[in-house]
């Protein structure tokens, strides 16, 4: 590999390799988010769909399909579908997140946004199913309906598990599958499905997306406590929002009585004072949970790469393998 | 027809004729709204799905399928699907409606309900698509994905049209199709679809549901201004919420300068004072818009009945015809 190629990030390499397909996906997204009767719909979605997203999820579908030799038209529909489901989820997340953030200071504007977010999200969700129907594949509908149920289930689970110190690592992984991995794995699997792959290959594609999504989310949660490299991200958001992520779940499990009282006060009861975040980070360090979580993320990325071993060599496969490394590169 | 039968309401007759099917639908609803990982989901839906709804929409699917001679298992799946979509819509409407009602007085409880409503609605929507996939019919998925898009579009349109005196009768009907008629028509059509009916029959079933839904919603809007019979409903909710419904749209169209100023103040600007509702009702009376709206509702019910003329005679067809009469009986 030349130095030039090495200098390009894997998702940029994928975008370059899939440029024509991505162009077609963007055209389809624009065409299908239009609404004859409700012009507000594209207004609400435009900033989400247009504004410089990496299109990571649709790229997974395109890459999976192309890597498996697909040359029909429907990988475009499915990539647009996946982006619509992702956007609908983001819109509904806005409502969920705003709810807690705006406590005691609701504004007409926020309320209007809330209603628009719910309804436009519903519209995109319905649109995504219309796109799937056009592919003529019931299996595709099955895969993405299942993923949609897992996403919603994971979000509800996150809501009920929030600030509950009894949250286990198992529940955390379940939440992460819903939040992130379910759409990654479905995006990969439907690519193999329309390419007519056998069960083992489709399972491999699914496993890659699942493990990549979990690695991706664990890294995100880790960086919220500072990670090992400086990033543009605000440190401590999850702590302030009392979200139980893997480093904290492990620190709670290892806590002595005084430490447990600290977690009960700050996370469970939400009574946080100056210096608490620093103390929390110190406790994660004391019990080595940042490090153990980091190793978990790397192991998931490794699992993603190994899942693809059954897939024949292909330039896109190489990029997907490198993408898995890249996802955890921020913490290694 | 005996006096005894005449004394029973048409939807009760349908429920009796379809008792076994409805029992199976209820069992399926209970089984499918369960969630292994998120027990909060059935908690949230139980009061909506269990508590004494008329099951009008699933009954339309069951009646359409049975009337067309269907004897397979999938009308149960589709009836449950239709009820799930309806319930998901109600949950998301809660968010939309609460937003305006609770202005200035948000509570943690309300906020929690909001987030649960959004996510559990999403879950039921995903579940409904899983049920459709089980029927193995892409056409069924097509019909209900289209209906879902129309529902969301209609809700967004209602939001943007709200309190806008430029709202036309055409926009009103579009909103009503989204709010009510789209699911009625789809519920009927999918019944014919799984029963393997020809295009003309499926169109007739769709048309019946469409016209019945529009009649149903117009009657509802009419009763909000008192209608012609006493009901348990609060009069004036739509006026206070500044919703433009058919009687008002027509009174605005016929308004002189002073009357227009009244509508601009009360509906567009929302500055309402004691006595305004009475004055609004007087204006509807002056321009005869309650009466003309009433005649429209009756005409839609008539259209519903006539749509079924191509369907061979069947006891369930008789009940559906009587249901159309019953829907407008409250205003005749």
UniProtKB/TrEMBL annotation, chains A, B:
Source superkingdom: Bacteria
PROSITE patterns linked: POLYPRENYL_SYNTHASE_1, POLYPRENYL_SYNTHASE_2
Molecular-function GO terms, alphabetical: all-trans-octaprenyl-diphosphate synthase activity; metal ion binding
EC number per UniProt: 2.5.1.90
A single GO BP: isoprenoid biosynthetic process
Pfam families cross-referenced by the UniProt entry: polyprenyl_synt
Cofactor(s) needed by this chain: Mg(2+)
Leading EC class: transferase
Catalytic activity as recorded in UniProt: 5 isopentenyl diphosphate + (2E,6E)-farnesyl diphosphate = all-trans-octaprenyl diphosphate + 5 diphosphate
Record InterPro entries: Isoprenoid_synthase_dom_sf, Polyprenyl_synt, Polyprenyl_synt_CS
Keyword vocabulary terms for this entry: Magnesium, Metal-binding, Transferase
The keyword RNA-binding is annotated on this UniProt entry: no
Role summary: Supplies octaprenyl diphosphate, the precursor for the side chain of the isoprenoid quinones ubiquinone and menaquinone.
Family named by the database record: Belongs to the FPP/GGPP synthase family.
Name of the molecule in the record: Octaprenyl diphosphate synthase
Annotated organism of origin: Yoonia sediminilitoris
């Amino acid at each position: 590999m030349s130095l030039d190629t090495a200098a390009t990030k894997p998702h940029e390499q994928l975008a370059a390799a899939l440029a024509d397909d991505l162009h077609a996906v963007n055209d389809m997204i624009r065409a299908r988010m239009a609404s004859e009767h409700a012009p507000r719909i594209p207004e609400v979605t435009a900033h989400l769909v247009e504004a410089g997203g990496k299109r990571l999820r649709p790229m997974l579908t395109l890459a999976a399909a192309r890597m498996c030799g697909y040359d029909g038209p429907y990988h475009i529909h499915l990539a647009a579908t996946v982006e619509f489901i992702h956007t609908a989820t983001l819109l509904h997340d806005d409502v969920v997140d705003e709810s807690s953030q705006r406590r005691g200071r609701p504004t007409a504007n926020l309320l209007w946004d809330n209603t628009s977010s719910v309804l436009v999200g519903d519209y995109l969700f319905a649109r995504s199913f219309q796109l799937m129907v056009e592919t003529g594949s019931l299996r595709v509908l099955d895969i993405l309906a299942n993923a949609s149920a897992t996403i919603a289930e994971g979000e509800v689970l996150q809501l009920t598990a929030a600030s509950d110190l009894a949250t286990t690592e198992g529940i955390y992984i379940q939440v992460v599958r819903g939040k992130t991995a379910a759409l990654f794995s479905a995006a990969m699997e439907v690519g193999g499905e329309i390419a007519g792959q056998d069960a083992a290959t489709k399972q491999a594609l699914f496993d890659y997306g699942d493990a990549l999504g979990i690695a991706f989310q664990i890294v995100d949660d880790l960086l919220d406590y500072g990670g090992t490299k400086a990033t543009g991200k605000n440190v401590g958001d999850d702590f302030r929002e009392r979200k139980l992520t893997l480093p904290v779940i492990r620190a709670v499990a290892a806590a002595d009585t005084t430490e447990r009282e600290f977690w009960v006060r700050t996370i469970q009861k939400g009574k946080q004072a100056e210096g608490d975040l620093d103390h929390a980070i110190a406790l994660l360090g004391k019990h080595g949970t940042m490090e153990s979580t980091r190793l978990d993320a790397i192991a998931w990325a490794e699992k993603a790469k190994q899942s693809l071993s059954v897939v024949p060599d292909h330039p896109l496969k190489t990029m997907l393998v490198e993408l898995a490394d890249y996802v955890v590169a921020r913490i290694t």
